[in-house]
Amino acid sequence: MRQAVAVLLAVVASSLYALSTALQALEARAAPRESALRASLLTRLARRPLWVLGACAGVLAWPLQAMALAAGSVALVEPALGAGLVVLLVLGSTLLHEHVGRREVAGVLAVVAAVAALTVAAPGETGAFTTTGSWAIGLALVVVAPAPYALRLVRGAGGLSTTLAAGLGWAWTGLGTALLDDAIGGRHWLAAIGWGIGVGVATWGALLAEMTALQTWTATRAIPIAFGIEMLVPAALAPLLTHASPPRPVLFATALAVAGAGALLLGGSRVVGRAAQP
Q: What is the DSSP-derived secondary structure letter of residue 246?
């Protein structure tokens, strides 16, 4: 029952994230290219009502994701966020009247099948993070948060580098959120404040990298990579970072591979790309 609740919350959160992406991408594409990887990009976008509306959708999605992580494991919740790609597909089909073909149907079936398999193959709960795992996530948050500024210093504002930075930023934000949940549940308030700050700073870096990526690349190139990393990296690393192991490791690995294939099919679809860059 808890796993079903976790998946439901993750689907609602991913739907809001998808809406956020669609609205924010529209404004990001119109922003001057010279603002790439600069704080001025976000401050400029923050003056645009449509972008702010998208940001509000993302803000609403985050506590739902946190609730999903409290109800289910990272290995289940993060892949379930792939439902956001299905939402973008629906937006592209219904609002923009794009044709849904075999590629899109196959992508939807792959994501749905993978999440269904993970409900029995993934650990029921995230479990306690190991000391090494907690340190690894903390250090990773420190690295991914300033990544956009490091890329700017080395003139790395290209589509691939910023998309990778965005995907890794959101992936570690998800893991940091799980640790924040764990700290709140254990009433470790100082640790909760620390993880909250880490998640907030990493979110800034991931958002800046994502907006720059959408300036540089088409959505059909950026979305499958960013979504794939955000979905699969936390789930794949969870057994190494926590004391919880998947009860069916072969099915677990297969489901993650199927989820990744579904993300590639949907993320690279013209229908999804049009919805994310109307």
A: -
